[in-house]
Design a protein that fits this description.
single chain; mainly beta; Thrombin, subunit H; 3 domains; 6-stranded antiparallel β-barrel; 6-stranded antiparallel beta barrel
Length: 296
Amino acid sequence: MKDRRSNYRVQQRASGLRVSLEADGKTWDGIVADTSAGGIAASYPVDAAPQLALGDCIELFFQGGGIDEGRRAHVWVKSVDDTGAHRRYGFSFTDPGKAVAGIPFAHRENFNRRAWLRVLPDRAVNAVLVPLEGDLHGREIEAGVADISAGGMALFVSGIRPEGLREVTAVRCTAIFPGESVPRTLTGRIRNREHLTHCVRVGVAFDPDDDGDRGPTYERSWDCESCEHRGLLATSHLRCPACCHPRGDGETYLLAWSAIQPQSAHEFWGNQSCTTCEAKMSSKAAYCGRCGTSLV
């Protein structure tokens, strides 16, 4: 499916996965910021960070985070971002299957998931990118949506020289999110840039302090085997709100771009709260989708 992402990420704590890189007789130790089956992002203090070029192929050693034995994996350098005090590198595994193989199953769920679903459009979706600083300040730049999540979006930007965005960090983005008909405008920061053949792929992380309407949250879906209710939320509904049947370990799926709806638009998502766990449920729910408490 074009709109389904298999590599989900989870943010790591400082006590979680750590990564080491050896080169030219030196060793650089960093903290793994997030992980997936497809790669990792590692953070280093700026004054103690390695100098890596995009496209380099290197070997990393990482340990911790529930992995009993350290693991080595070859990666490609995909992105770099200086945040002031830290430098964050994005790495993709050259052999994803080999990198994840051998990790205890009990820990693989934590290693291979992402807090925000990233949806790839199955049709052309336009957006407008407006730099909030530099020589391009205030200019409206047409772009195409590469993928989108509640935390940010990736845009294909063409018709502008790549170096034109080099000094730009703060931007404003306007686009129509899946399942909605009214455009949303949010501010954010460019986290990575990738030069492609005919365009620049720009990754924008939404500003958590943005006073505007936040991006919607999406979840994977599942179908109840008991009452055959379809399209339940895989994270919010651990039990079927209609019959209380547990979700279990069954397969989940992501709806197509044209069909997916924000979490807040789901039929069982509402303003009433469960008296036991305070989960939000609508008046249509007979049971709490999180703890199973009867709401009737």
